[in-house]
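Listing S7. Sequence submitted for prediction.
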Amino acid sequence: MNRKVIIISGPTGVGKTSAAIAVCKRFGGDVVGADSMQVYRQMEIGTAKPTSDEQSQAKHHMIDVVEPNESFDAALFAKQADAVIESLFKQGVLPVVAGGTGLYVKALVHGLSEAIPSDEKVTARLTHEAEEKGLVSLYARLKEVDPDYAGRISSNDPIRIVRALEVFEVTGKPYSAHHQEHGFSEKRYDALKICLASDREVIYDRINRRVDLMIEEGLLDEVKGLLAKGYHRNLKSMGSIGYRHMVEHLLDGVPWDETVRLLKRDTRRFAKRQLTWFRSDPEMIWLEPGDLDALFERVASFLGS
């Protein structure tokens, strides 16, 4: 069986969706999203979900998969995306995986070991403790039980701090140890891996303009609506970039100008982390965004080999 897939990755705002659509049009493919936020229904603007026009140009899969209060992770993504890709293979359709969540891409191509256990009751208790006592004590506890992971995250990151402490309580092992044991197997697909990236200043400028556009399109109202429907600020989905910032403005009184500044800053930092992840993959081919000729040439060569 021809198990070839195209992967188009890169930092946020770089133009992955448009590139994937172009490849689908040229080579007869469907887009398989690999974005940890676009899986959530009702979260359109802050996730930069493909527009209705974009979705009309190429069929998209793995978006709008779960509600904002439902659990979703790399293992679930790989399982569901596998089923989509197998179906596309049977139809003779080229799977074009597009997204910036590096762990999702790696889980898809190489597979993941059993997902790290979780316990909603422990999560709820730790979350309540963070709200009542602040993050200082929780972060101090994390430094004691898992100094390696604590040193790699911000002391102001409630989602990751709570998750790491939860895993330690449930399993008795540090979160970092689970990551080391999250073994990746041999490649499950023959994948052409493309990463779209420009100079840092170009990427940062695109990010700043994307944030401005999200705000113009109504990101604040989108978050107001989610809160009104009862989606709590401590949900994984609501703690993501963009949504977290709007929540802090609405519920904590962070001034609007500061909210926008922090949102742009944190998005730029996120893009930097994405690039660091993709640079660690020696199979990655780096192309300039918008250079469709080079992209088509790589894909054609790969499919013809």
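Caption to Listing S7: primary sequence and predicted structure tokens for the chain studied. The beta strands are 4-9, 29-33, 60-61, 94-98, 190-196, 285-287. The chain has two domains: 4-114+183-304, 120-181.
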